[in-house]
Amino acid sequence: MRPGDRSAAGFGVGVAARLARIAARLLAGALLVAGTAAASDEAGWALVQPGTVVMFRHALAPGVGDPAAFKIDDCSTQRNLDEAGRAQAVRIGEQFRHRGIAVGAVLSSQWCRARDTATLAFPGQVRDDSTLNSVFRASERSAAQTAAVRATVAAWRGPGVLVLVTHQVNISALTGTPTASGEGVVLRAAPGGGIEVLGRVRP
What we know:
Blueprint: H1 3-46, E1 53-57, H2 83-98, E2 103-108, H3 112-121, E3 126-128, H4 142-155, E4 161-166, H5 168-175, E5 184-190, E6 194-201
Parallel strand pairs: 1-4, 2-3, 2-4
Antiparallel strand pairs: 1-5, 5-6
Helix pairs in contact: 2-3
């Protein structure tokens, strides 16, 4: 082997070693983030106790808003859950059953993607509630609907947990908290008829 070849080989080994160290650090960081997220999820689920309310954003439904021809009683005119969204909705219910969380009532927006989320998660328990309907293109209804939902949350004492399935814009209007698809915000009544945001849960 010529001296230059030996130098090149050594350089290659050095680069490979550095890349291996970088990969190891990235993997360690990813594991730390995953562990932190899991711990955060567990902390959130621990807050779901009898007398609390969990307000979920509907599961994954690709797109934004609804088509111009939207009809509330025709799912074919709406933005709907995809397969990943349907699986996510099922996991929401599984989390409740796995953790032994008793559900006292389930209320849902009349939008198909919200009702399907609720039905897949909690079959046979869902009731429509128009105060949970999306205000994405109906800002004139936002204040009245938000007040009505705030009253529902403030009045809930059980038995069990009240589950509300609605839309991101509605959750933000009530709590100021943005949510991902399928994510829930844990709430409870606060003194004076208000509500308190306790934490978040993910399926």
